[in-house]
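Annual report, structural modelling task.

Input specification for the iron/sulfur cluster complex:
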Amino acid sequence: MPMTITEKILAAHSDRDTVHPGEIIMARIDLALGNDITAPIAIKILRDNGIDEVFDKDKIALVPDHFTPNKDIASAEQCKVLREFAHDYDISHYFELGEMGVEHALLPEQGIVLPGDLVLGADSHTCTYGGLGAFSTGVGSTDLAGAMISGRSWFRVPTSMKFVLDGELRPWVGGKDLILYIIGQIGVDGALYRSMELTGSAIGALGMSDRLAMCNMAIEAGAKNGIIAPDAITEEYVKGRSEREYTVFSSDADAVYDEVINIDASQIELQVAFPHLPENSKPVGEAKDISIDQVVIGSCTNGRFEDLEIAASLIKGKKVADGVRMIVIPATPTIYRQAMDAGFFAIFLEAGAVISPPTCGPCLGGHMGVLAEGEKAVATTNRNFVGRMGHPGSEVYLSGPAVAAASAVAGTISSPHDLI
Amino acid sequence: MSETVFRGRAWKFGNDVDTDAIIPARYLNTSDPEVLAAHCMEDADPEFSSRVSAGDMIVGGKNFGCGSSREHAPIAIKAAGVSCVIAPSFARIFYRNSFNMGLPIFESAQASAQTVSGDELEVNTATGVIRNITRGEEYRAEPFPPFMVELIEAGGLIPFVLREMGK
Ligand code: SF4
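The model returned the following structure:
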């Protein structure tokens, strides 16, 4: 029976030849992930039930990235729960400050997630790893606890939607613009319960950073997972990051989709998603003249080296506009180091930006750049819900790194084309 | 499935109520149910937590609970005393979390379309019948898939997992 890449990964992890959409299966987990917000609840469940070992100490990742470096006493207590658990249960992939980065940038970078894996994460953006050709999906803390105990979890096999993006991208347009455009077309529940499979020549031409950014936002369309079949670019990225063997899956030509959407990617312009939903995406030109108070470049969506590189190339030799605060957050310590070595820090500092240590920080209104009432920000993050970056009366406009950097210089939402 | 009947006032919300509206991230440095309950639905209706009474129900629009994976959202709703949530559709992580934690949720487009805030509702968990006492109407909710019934009857995900593992 023909299957999609998602169905094949689910079948392989439940020792079956085939799976059908709608079926509920029990599948083996290659990695279970938790952070400083979600893991403490899961850890309490294990401890309260007297469970003194996890199913596999090498298949659990704990990343305290949301409110770290500890924002306040309550956050410090939550991080302490992770630290002590990691010690007591001998967890291999626990990341202390200094090694810690934003989870969904960190795990692929460290080779902890590989193509063909099945990853369950107590964080909604766990779907990011679909960029590597893995099946990964977000769950809550109780599911994380169940997976840490048994190494298995239940899944309803999703139906799949196929997005075929062909054509050459316009200058400065990247993965973030493509996914914002798609969400704008289908809405924040346009892929509810379903798998979003991304394919076509425009996807094949994207680097890993853009692919991960696109799958990262599959949840913003309600999807269970986003996925891109591995190719030579994926293999090149994975090479040298892990000794572990992995399996490359791809969809059969006659696999069944409940919707196939063809998109001419060459027509997609730079996008901005207006408050307060990611589906409110429009070409950047329609956001012109909106003045802003803050720009954030970072997060699990666009805090990778390539994103900082785009921002640095646009900011170089220019100044952040008066009245605008620009915050750059390299997503991991490795990216931080690479950006520093590449000279980006000097560019950002001379422009008047501030560089934050790796953290989720302002992305969820946590710390390191929270907005006051009435303030507006352009951010390369993934959500612009009411109050997401601070006061319920503040506003977030989502964009890729090019629009964010151009807007920081202009002081109003701008296209990089206006800058040069 | 054993039968429970909930009766309470409806609190109506719109489409795409996200987890930041249910419990804003600024309160996630704790998982204490009492603290979370005090801020439940704060960014959608600041009065909600002080005015909700035990047994009341949340009736949302489509895609209820979209956004983050935080279990703090169903915890906050449950701790606020809400007996169940009714919506035409739920975001998938919220759906999963609610079952795992024992917050009953019902999919009914009809109930969501017809109900307004303040209506008195009665929900039968076994039959999925929702009665709107104020309006004298009756709506149907989708029955739970058999696996979900098994989960609920086991007492939630963790007892289910422990039983499967013979622990
Ligand atoms: S960067 Fe933002 S979206 Fe990503 S994991 Fe952190 S809080 Fe969540």
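Residues 13 and 152 of chain B are 26 Å apart (CA to CA).
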